[in-house]
Write a structure and sequence with these properties.
The chain is 38% helix and 15% strand. The strands form 2 sheets. It has a 5-stranded parallel beta sheet with strand order 1-5-4-2-3, with helices on both faces. A 5-stranded parallel beta sheet has the order 8-7-6-9-10, with helices on one face. The chain is globular, with a radius of gyration of 19 Å. It contains 11 helices and 10 strands. It is α/β, with parallel strands linked by helices and 300 residues long. The structure holds N-carbamoyl-L-aspartate (NCD). The site of N-carbamoyl-L-aspartate has 10 residues, from helix 2 and helix 6.
Length: 300
């Protein structure tokens, strides 16, 4: 297996997911390596991020690479009118791998045309966030011991959640069942339902979170994506549409695992945090190992 670009999960096979889960587990055991000694990773983030950028930077350093970073695109020449193409042509000369986040869907795929260096989409608007999907697969595999056979509930803003969108492309290659739980205004776009139909993955669309918790193995909570709303009043109406608390989690199977890509706003109350079911901070740690594995995979 060989690839140099991670732009979307739509072209990732099950075989590749299983390979990367295995590689990430090896990174967990090693802790740090010198695999990419002398290499430079550039993180170029045109949209706010804490976790993803710092997770890639920590991962790069743990595999021996060094990092150059733009955390705030307003400090770059984009502000002076430089095109994305030119920005990428410049980073192509400075770095051995580029991780980029942009608010425009497809922007990283477009940027990839201007560099021959490995490039990773760190999130492009509501479209894709492939490294998050891979770390989510690693988390499910580690927490549940397998992925085949799981019933997974996605809750909240499934219209704009790029982590959900990316994850569905990977999950549809496994024998899973999906329960989408959303208000009407934040339903999963129909293209993802078509994808599940094409792969014969059973799913239902629901509204009542409490009612469905007992049937789930994984509860994947999402934040209402404030930055994607043109109308603040619409966001105000929908934020807080689902709030998961400890009492609700305890009504589920003891083996239920609660995931969240973070940041959390108010979707999960803090009394859930200390339950064994709360997997979201372990998910962050898994992200580090998955990104170490990814950097090595794309650069060697
Ligand atoms: C997610 C993202 O950026 O899409 N965060 C992350 O990368 N961990 C989820 C979110 O912002 O809600």
């Amino acid at each position: 297996m060989k690839r140099t670009q991670l732009l979307t999960t739509a072209d990732i096979t099950r075989e590749e997911v299983d390979f990367l889960i295995n590689e990430a587990e090896k990174m967990r055991k090693k802790g740090t390596t010198n695999d990419l000694k002398g290499k430079v990773v550039a993180t170029l983030f045109f949209e706010p991020s804490t976790r993803t950028r710092l997770s890639f930077e920590s991962a790069a350093q743990r595999v021996g690479a060094s990092v150059i970073s733009v955390a705030d695109a307003s400090t770059t020449s984009t502000k002076k009118g430089e095109t994305l193409a030119d920005t990428i042509r410049v980073f192509d000369k400075l770095a051995d791998l580029i991780v980029m986040r942009q608010s425009v869907p497809g922007a990283t795929a477009e940027a990839a045309k201007f560099t021959n260096k490995p490039i990773i989409n760190g999130g492009d608007g509501a479209n894709q966030h492939p490294s998050q999907a891979l770390l989510d697969m690693l988390t499910m595999h580690r927490e549940c011991g397998k992925i085949d056979g799981l019933t997974i509930g996605f809750v909240g803003d499934l219209k704009f959640s790029r982590t959900t969108h990316s994850l569905l492309y990977l999950l549809c290659q496994y024998k899973v069942q999906i329960v989408f739980i959303t208000p009407d205004a934040l339903k999963i776009p129909s293209e993802y339902l078509d994808l599940l139909k094409k792969h014969g993955v059973p799913y239902t669309e629901e509204k009542d979170l409490e009612k469905h918790i007992p049937s789930l193995d994984v509860l994947y909570m999402t934040r209402v994506q404030q930055e994607r709303f043109a109308d603040p009043a619409e966001y105000a109406k929908l934020k807080g549409c689902y709030v998961l608390n400890a009492a609700m989690v305890k009504k589920g199977k003891p083996s239920l695992r609660v995931m969240h890509p973070l940041p959390r706003v108010d979707e999960i109350t803090t009394d859930v945090d200390d339950l064994p079911q709360a997997a979201y901070f372990r998910q962050v740690e898994n992200g580090l190992y998955m990104r170490m594995a990814l950097l090595k995979y794309l650069m060697s």
